[in-house]
Amino acid sequence: MSPNPIANGHNDFLIKIQGVSLQIAGRQILDNIDLEVGKGEIVTLIGPNGSGKTSLVRLLLGLHQPDQGRIQRCSRLRIGYMPQKLIVDNVLPLTVEGFLKLIPQVKSPAFNKVLKQVEIESLLQKPIQNISGGEFQRVLLARALLRKPDLLVLDEPAQGVDINGQQKLYQLISAIRDEYGCGVIMVSHDLNLVMASTDRVLCLNTHICCTGHPEAVTQHPEYLKLFGSAMDGFAVYTHSHDHTHDLHGDVVCDEGHDHG
Predict the structure, then answer these.
(1) What pLDDT, on a 0 to 100 scale, did the predictor assign at position 256?
(2) Strand, coil or helix: what is 251?
């Protein structure tokens, strides 16, 4: 069934899917999925490889159509999408600045604000092919933000970022949600880190295994069946100590502390 945009903009949710199922080449990819994302809410999709996370994201973006169920979007919904991977051909002479300015009608104040927010001002004149994996992830996040999204869809946003940089990146995503008031859907395998930066978790394995607050989900039998052995020895990650890291993972000394 085709997506059915909501006629007015007075609903609390940004996007809602109800009873959605999807088959591809005779294989059941998604089965009876319900999901609703509201303004200012961070929802994280987790699940093993092949669980349907990418297909669900493609449904949300309108790149797939469900075989059953319906998708509702609020009127004039703007989506900023950060893909898991994006290949830029090496023969294309494109700087980071040129890549970001491919987005139409981006004004300088908004452009400069986003650059500062994701800490990529120093990268502008570098060829897009020559930056590190972690830097490229931040460029992709900037690209998504420049669309002034109501809904930010992030597919493995911390890919290529070390563990300290991941913590900082998830903090940044929370700050973006707070500042822009946008909804956020994240796909992640970084279970022990991302749990501390999300409002609600949906555990997917073709069907919805469990959903709810992060701490509740980690105790659910279906979650433990999928991830228990892989998560032995881990707890929901809070990372409390007396220094911070920048997006590169480097230590930033706080006032009153000497970290040598």
Answers:
(1) 41
(2) strand
* Residue-wise pLDDT tens digits, 157-191: 888 788 778 888 888 999 999 998 999 999 987 66
Q: What is the CATH number of the domain that holds 187?
A: 3.40.50.300
Beta bridge partners of 207: 205
Asked if the structure places residue 104 within a domain, the reply is: no
Radius of gyration of the chain (CA): 19
Q: 25: domain range?
A: 13-78+149-252
Nearest to 153 by CA among 51, 220, 84: 84
Would residue 85 count as lying in a domain? no
What mean pLDDT is predicted for residues 89-114? 89
Helix (H) and strand (E) counts for the chain? 8, 11
Q: Show the DSSP H helices in the chain as ranges.
A: 53-61, 96-100, 108-117, 133-145, 163-180, 191-194, 214-217, 221-227
- Rounded CA gap, 13 and 25, in Å? 32
Sign of CA dihedral 191, 193, 196, 200: negative
Q: Which residues contact 33 (CB under 8 A, 6 or more apart)?
A: 17, 19, 20, 21, 52, 56, 69, 204, 207, 208
Q: Is residue 65 part of a domain?
A: yes
Decide if 141 is inside a domain: no
Residue bearing tokens 């949600």:
177
SS3 letters for 28-72? EEEEEEEEEEECCCEEEEECCCCCCHHHHHHHHHCCCCCCEEEEE
Number of domains in the chain: 1
